[in-house]
């Protein structure tokens, strides 16, 4: 028996022994005390009866004498009263308490039993008789009773102790061993058995217990065998289920890819067909087919993502990205859908949110596209708002909270718990108004989980919904120079905001206030016009107006026209906020708007528009210009433009965008290499001479990385020179083709078409030296020639001209400072930058002067630099005057 169980058994035996000893001792003590006391009370009761009898007889005898006052008679009556050996005294008192007679017998009689008996005659009380009986005769009997009780009590106690020992021996110790056995069995040892010892009952108990243990051992063995069999079956079924799931996922993935290939062909052909001459009915049918194909492709993409999630193959690709660009790019793709339904689409990012993050930008876009797309789909009137706030920030990253709110139909409370399940929809009926697979929210929830957050919804039926999700990102260090300079010239500048949506007004005012401007907001045209006229009457100047183009009642275009016709308001410059860019540009220029931004308004775009408007004095074309329609490219390309010159950037982006291509701009070779890590491009336009990393260095790095991956992206060199050997140098660096700057539209697009269609590498069409000709007396600006260079687009020409007029003073000043410091290297770089800008406007004399300075800087000979700089200043001045005249014409 173990120590613990043995100790437990001894404690049990001790308790039982003490309990029985106390019980037996109590019985013996009770017998010892109760029996003598009982006998004594019985004897006293007998003596009391005897005393009462004697008293009654004696009182009857003395009553006649006491009635007549015969004292002698009373004495005689007492003397002749009942004779008893235990009678000690008798005393007679009259009714006044005077003693009449008394008799006292013996002395030292010990305890006395007293009694008082009234003496009555004919119902009249004559006195009282007192007598006492001796109790000495009871003492021997009481003593005998005590001795007898003592003996009996000892016998009871001894017998009880013998019983205690017997019970301890035959019951307590076997129970202790039984407890030890039970503890070992409870610990898992079913091989032990209880040992029979003690009485018949204990033996029967032990036998029944051992039988139970044997049964339990048998059952355990059977359970173990059953568990083994179940585990084997579960393993087999799990393997089968995993194989089936894997096969299903692979099947879904393969089928999705197989379907997507012809679907892309269908979509491409539909787009091409829609660009041809069609009847109205044909265009309607093709548009419906394109819409159906887009919906089918969305379903296929959802199924593919879902199959990847089920197969555990969906992973994140964290890279540095700019959150503002991600949000603006995402919402811009949905802005047209919102505009077609008359919805206001807005975005608000808290000032505490970091600008540059590390995460999977593509998956974040996917979640936002799904949530914002759903909000637009389920909202018929009102607005959709995207908000981003900082939830938590630590040394390892930051937790952001996104909220997508709408004023749509809402979700019933009973459905909210199921909308994140796969293939579940809030309206599951066959007559539902809104389509979809029911996978979007399930996939979004999984993606948010992978990003370390969660997705949930707050909604009330008929009152709109707000989908919240959190996501964890790393915080990237901002590259040098990435911080935009503080717009000091905007501090304290009054600005009016006129927009019929309260949320948009709040967001715009917050943006303007962050630049230390003084915004005032109005809900409609009437309030804005009244504020302008009131300020004019008070002699105040309100230089800037942010105006929503589409408002109920009087829209922005009508208000802008009213302002332009009022001479008192002529000093107010208007930035028009539109819902589409191309179709409304002419209307904006027609009403004299100085700039145009597209909703949802990007912070960077708004700042650029304000700075451009303030810098140019708000001058806008007096008459509308119409863009010359161009034929879109047969195959839209995703182009990476590596160019450091802002004028060249704007020109190239404008030309490429007009043909349906998408462009991502990188300011130097290093940024181009980084962009290629994040995105896939069809072609790269690479400027040869750039800061930080030149085009040759960037190309070498790209080709080095492609040798490991086996990929190849065509690279076209952009160079301002086409001297002998330049072509060979570009091809030796790994470039596929080259073209000279300034860009020639036809040459550029022919080159891209040949290069991306699998043809031979293209080259520059001629060997011009980056100069359109030598200085001559022709006009500084040839409008017809420039329109040809700018693909027939007056709008693009005006935009690039405005950009040049803005940066030209700084470029010319850089050349002036470099020549003044006799720094040949700086002269070379500054003249090269200026040459690249002026070359876009076919300014031969300015290009020639800049080229001469560039060569002087490269050769290190600046002897004639001041004279050439003077010529450059004069030619650039003529170009600026010509461009100013062209823009105001």
Describe this structure in words.
By secondary structure, the chain is of the alpha/beta class. Helix 5 (280-311) crosses helix 8.
Number of strands: 21
Oligomer: single chain
**Can you give the helix content as a percent range?**
40-55%
Mean pLDDT: 77
Brief rundown of the structure:
The protein is of the alpha/beta class and 889 residues long. Helices cover 54% and strands 15% of the residues.
List the keywords.
single chain, 889 residues, alpha/beta, five-stranded parallel β-sheet, 23 helices, 54% helix, 15% strand, elongated, disordered N terminus
What are the SSEs and their pairings?
Blueprint lengths: L2 H65 L3 H9 L7 E8 L4 E6 L7 E10 L2 E11 L4 H48 L13 H75 L5 H32 L7 E4 H18 L3 E6 L6 E4 L1 H17 L5 E12 L2 E10 L33 H11 L4 E5 L5 E11 L18 E5 L3 H13 L3 E5 L2 H13 L6 E5 L7 H10 L7 E6 L3 H9 L4 E4 L4 H13 L22 E5 L3 H13 L3 E5 L2 H10 L4 E5 L7 H15 L5 E5 L6 H7 L4 E4 L4 H12 L26 H7 L4 H27 L3 H15 L5 H16 L5 H24 L1
Parallel strand pairs: 6-8, 12-13, 12-14, 14-15, 15-16, 17-18, 17-19, 19-20, 20-21
Antiparallel strand pairs: 1-2, 1-4, 3-4, 5-7, 7-11, 8-9, 9-11, 10-11
Helix pairs in contact: 1-2, 1-3, 4-5, 5-8, 6-7, 7-8, 14-20, 15-16, 20-21, 20-23, 21-22, 22-23
């Amino acid at each position: 028996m173990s120590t613990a169980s043995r100790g437990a058994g001894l404690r049990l035996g001790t308790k039982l022994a003490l309990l029985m000893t106390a019980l037996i001792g109590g019985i013996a003590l009770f017998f010892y005390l109760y029996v003598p006391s009982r006998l004594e009370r019985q004897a006293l009761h007998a003596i009391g009866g005897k005393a009462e009898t004697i008293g009654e007889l004696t009182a009857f005898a003395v009553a006649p004498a006491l009635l007549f006052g015969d004292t002698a008679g009373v004495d005689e009556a007492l003397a002749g009263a009942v004779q008893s050996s235990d009678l000690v005294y008798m005393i007679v008192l009259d009714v006044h308490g005077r003693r009449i007679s008394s008799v006292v017998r013996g002395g030292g009689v010990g305890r006395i039993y007293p009694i008082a008996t009234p003496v009555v005659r004919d119902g009249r009380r004559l006195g009282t008789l007192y007598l006492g009986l001796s109790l000495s005769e009871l003492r021997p009997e009481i003593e005998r009773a005590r001795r007898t009780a003592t003996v009996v009590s000892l016998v009871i106690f001894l017998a009880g102790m013998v019983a205690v020992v017997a019970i301890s021996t035959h019951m307590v110790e076997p129970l202790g061993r039984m407890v030890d056995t039970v503890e070992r069995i409870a610990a898992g040892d079913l091989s032990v058995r209880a040992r029979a010892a003690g009485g018949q009952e204990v033996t029967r108990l032990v036998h029944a217990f051992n039988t139970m243990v044997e049964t339990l051992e048998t059952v355990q063995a059977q359970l173990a065998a059953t568990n083994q069999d179940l585990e084997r079956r579960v393993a087999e079924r799990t393997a089968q289920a995993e194989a089936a799931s894997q096969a299903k996922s692979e099947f879904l993935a393969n089928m999705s890819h197989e379907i997507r290939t012809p679907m892309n062909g269908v979509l491409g052909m539909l787009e091409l067909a829609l660009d041809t001459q069609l009847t109205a009915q044909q265009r309607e049918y093709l548009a419906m087919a394109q819409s159906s194909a887009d919906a089918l492709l969305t379903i296929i993409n959802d199924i593919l993502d879902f199959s990847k999630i089920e197969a555990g193959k969906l992973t994140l690709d964290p890279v540095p990205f700019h959150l503002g660009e991600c949000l603006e790019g995402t919402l811009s793709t949905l802005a047209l859908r919102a505009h077609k339904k008359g919805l206001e689409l807005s975005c608000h990012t808290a000032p505490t949110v970091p600008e540059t993050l590390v995460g999977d930008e593509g998956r974040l876009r996917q979640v936002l596209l799904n949530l914002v797309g759903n909000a637009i789909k389920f909202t018929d009137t009102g607005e959709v708002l995207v908000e981003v706030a900082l939830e938590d920030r630590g040394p390892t990253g930051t937790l952001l909270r996104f909220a997508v709110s709408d004023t749509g139909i809402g979700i019933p409370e009973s459905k909210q718990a199921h909308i994140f399940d796969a293939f579940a929809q809030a309206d599951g009926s066959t007559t539902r108004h809104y389509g979809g697979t029911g996978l979007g929210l399930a996939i979004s929830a999984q993606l948010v989980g992978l990003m370390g957050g969660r997705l949930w919804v707050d909604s009330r039926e008929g009152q709109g919904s707000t989908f919240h999700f959190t996501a964890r990102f790393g915080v990237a260090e901002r590259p040098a120079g990435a911080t935009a300079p503080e717009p000091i010239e905007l501090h304290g500048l009054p600005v009016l905001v006129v927009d019929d949506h309260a949320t948009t007004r709040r967001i715009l005012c917050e943006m303007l206030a962050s630049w230390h401007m003084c915004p005032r907001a109005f809900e409609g045209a009437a309030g804005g016009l009244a504020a302008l006229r009131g300020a004019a009457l008070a002699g105040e100047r309100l230089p800037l107006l942010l105006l929503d183009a589409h408002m109920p009642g009087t829209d922005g275009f009508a208000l802008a026209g009213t302002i332009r016709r009022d001479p008192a308001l002529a000093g107010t410059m208007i930035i028009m906020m539109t819902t589409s860019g191309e179709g409304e540009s002419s209307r904006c220029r027609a009403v004299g708007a100085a700039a145009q931004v597209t909703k949802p308004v990007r912070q960077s775009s708004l700042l650029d528009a304000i700075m451009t408007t303030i810098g140019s004095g708000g001058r806008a074309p007096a008459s509308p210009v119409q863009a010359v329609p161009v034929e879109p490219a047969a195959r839209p390309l995703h182009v990476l433009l590596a160019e450091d010159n802002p004028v060249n950037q704007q020109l190239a982006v404008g030309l490429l965008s007009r043909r349906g291509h998408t462009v991502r701009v990188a300011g130097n070779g290093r940024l181009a290499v980084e962009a290629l890590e994040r995105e896939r491009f069809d072609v790269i336009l690479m400027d040869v001479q750039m800061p930080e990393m030149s085009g040759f260095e960037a190309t070498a790095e790209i080709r080095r990385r492609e040798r490991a991956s086996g990929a190849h992206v065509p690279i076209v060199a952009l160079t301002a020179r086409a001297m002998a050997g330049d072509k060979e140098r570009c091809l030796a660096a790994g470039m596929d083709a080259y073209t000279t700057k300034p860009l020639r539209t036809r040459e550029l697009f022919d080159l891209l078409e040949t290069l991306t269609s699998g043809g031979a590498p293209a080259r520059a069409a001629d060997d011009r030296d980056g100069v359109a000709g030598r200085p001559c007396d022709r006009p500084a600006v040839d409008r017809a020639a420039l329109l040809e260079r700018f693909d027939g687009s007056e709008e693009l020409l005006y935009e690039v001209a405005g950009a040049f007029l803005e940066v030209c003073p700084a470029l010319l000043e850089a050349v002036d400072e470099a020549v003044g410091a006799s720094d040949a290297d700086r002269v070379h770089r500054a003249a090269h930058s200026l040459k690249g800008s002026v070359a876009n406007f076919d300014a031969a004399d300015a290009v020639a002067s800049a080229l001469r300075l560039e060569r002087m800087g490269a050769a290190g000979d600046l002897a004639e630099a001041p004279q050439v700089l003077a010529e450059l200043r004069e030619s650039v001045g003529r170009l600026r005057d010509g461009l100013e005249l062209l823009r105001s014409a």
